[in-house]
Amino acid sequence: MGFDNIGDAWAQRQAQIANEREQLKLEQQLKYKQMTKLIGSIILGLFLTVFLFQSCERIDAGHVGVKVNQYGDDKGVDNVVAVTGMVFFNPITTTVYEFPTFIQHKEYKGENSFVVNSKDGSEFNVSPIMNYSVQREKVPAIFAKYRRPLEDIEEGFLKTAVYDAFRLATNKYTADELISNRAVFEIEVRRLLDGQLLKEGFVINQFTSNLIYPETFKKSIEAKNNAVQAALRAENEVKTAEAQAKIKVATAQGNAEAMLTSAKAEAEANSLKQKTITPMLLQLEYINKWDGKLPVYGTTPQMFKNIQ
């Protein structure tokens, strides 16, 4: 009996230990499932957060958002333009690109400058500067055509359009005509640019050509200006000499007239004197100037002469 009770107690203890182990295992499995659910919920929450964050885009002022569908039957650029503000979309199937619509400033200088030829073959360097903007309603078409951001379009299509406008306009004029008709040339370049860019959705707001003359032409212009200045100096010197000669002639004429007038006056005075001098007047003058002394030597002079 004693051994049977001990055996029963041992069996009960083993059963209890097994139950405790089974319970612990179940609890561990439950905790694992709960932990898995928790981790799954966190991951799902993070995924949903990222998804929601990626599914909205803020389009800043002065920009236009373009929706591009990556998959499906309507794959490509959406015709609907998303204006400023928050835009919601599916980040898995759709991408939103921002395009600026405010005025852009672009300078083609240095390595990006152009060399164009006039009608007579003279080379001119051009470093144009322009301010332009993109038409809001044409942004989807622009992106669908070029599939590039605006900076790449500036170095591609826009640069080619500007170069072609200068090339065509410059080839209509000789070098002299370009210099003397600079304003007409600028208008022609602007006309060609507007004709090519407006239909594509680009508006030129301000434009400067910065046309630079070739070095040889600068020297010829400088030589021409020097020749003109030399001719003007020579002409001025001739005019100065003529003026000085006229002054001398006028002075000589004045002196001659003065001498003639003086001679005439003297002649008239002498004539008047001759008419007024008489023998009696001469004797009176002789008496007035005589000191009353007779000469000591020689013949006594005759005081009065017989006047015939």
Structure, briefly:
This protein is an alpha+beta fold and 308 residues long. The chain contains seven helices and eleven strands. The strands form four sheets. A three-stranded antiparallel β-sheet has the order 3-2-5, covered by helices on one side.
3D architecture notes:
This protein has 308 residues and is α+β, with helices and mostly antiparallel strands. The chain has seven helices and eleven strands. A hairpin with a 6-residue loop joins strand 2 (63-69) and strand 3. It is rod-shaped. The chain starts with a helix and ends in a 19-residue tail after the last helix.
How are the elements arranged and paired?
Elements: H1 2-54, E1 56-59, E2 63-69, E3 76-82, E4 85-88, E5 94-100, E6 104-107, E7 114-117, E8 123-126, E9 129-134, H2 139-146, H3 150-170, H4 175-180, H5 182-197, E10 202-208, E11 211-212, H6 215-276, H7 279-289
Q: Which features does this protein show?
A:
single chain; 11 strands; 7 helices; 308 residues; three-stranded antiparallel β-sheet; 57% helix; alpha+beta
> What is the overall shape?
rod-shaped
| Relative strand content | 15-25%
> What is the makeup of the main sheet?
3 strands, antiparallel
Unreliable stretches (pLDDT < 50, length at least 5) are: none
By DSSP (H or I, 4+ residues per run), the number of helices equals 7
Mean pLDDT score: 77
| Helix/sheet category | alpha+beta
Radius of gyration of CA atoms, rounded to a whole number: 59 Å
Helix content: 55-70%
Number of strands: 11
Quaternary structure state of the chains depicted: single chain
Strand order of the largest sheet: 3-2-5
- N→C terminal distance: 226 Å
Order of helices and strands: HEEEEEEEEEHHHHEEHH
